[in-house]
Amino acid sequence: MNVRDKVVLISGASRGIGRATALLLAQNGANVVATARNAEDLKSLELEHPGIVAVPGDVASEADMATVVQTALDRFGKIDVVINNAGYGVFKNVDELTVTEWDELMATNVKGTFVLTKAALPTLKAQGSGHVVVVASDVAKRTFAGGSLYTASKYAQEAFMGALRKEVRSFGIKVTGVYSGLVDSHFHAKGHGHETSKNWLKNEDMAESMLFIISRPAHVVVDEFMIHPLSQEY
């Protein structure tokens, strides 16, 4: 699974799946440009491995993501992979949700995927190669009570990927959707390492999945990657 010298942009990299992925890719020789809003956590990630460049920013900000892309080009001269990982969840019944909660979550989960991808696309098209990965969720394929906002954001990511895939394949650009089940991370209300999540996927499981996906030969694309813990029914 060779990713040596690949230049990888990854959002939401300050903790959880993003942090584990950034570290694993760097450990395998990739040059990682990591972004997130938490500058302190991001800086500690950069200090963990010399192959990681930290660029703090809001994924929904065009200016911030333009800086992330330009940093990668200034440092490494190319972009091979964009991993849209930034995201969070709010789980309430529809009549309990606020408009602010809706707007803020959609800005990160959906607009952020669009903004970072759009910022990188001119470079990928000019290169005639590249790979856009979106870390969605298995709830891009199903719904549940209390999940209207979160599932709407993931369905939106799914639709975005579907259209993007049709637009960019002729440019030699791959698009992969990653659909995970339960992951033992900060994402869930009881937090990372809680007894109730001991049999869930680990952040490292997700990182290894990302390594597999982006290390396929040039002629191979993993369009969709569904992954669950054995303990979860699907």
UniProtKB/TrEMBL annotation:
Record's keyword terms, sorted: Oxidoreductase
Gene Ontology cellular component terms for the protein in this record: membrane
Entry's Gene Ontology molecular function annotations: oxidoreductase activity, acting on the CH-OH group of donors, NAD or NADP as acceptor
SUPFAM superfamilies: NAD(P)-binding Rossmann-fold domains
Domain Ketoreductase per the UniProt entry, residue ranges: 6-179
InterPro entries: KR_dom (IPR057326), NAD(P)-bd_dom_sf (IPR036291), SDR_fam (IPR002347)
Annotated family: Belongs to the short-chain dehydrogenases/reductases (SDR) family.
Name this polypeptide is given: SDR family NAD(P)-dependent oxidoreductase
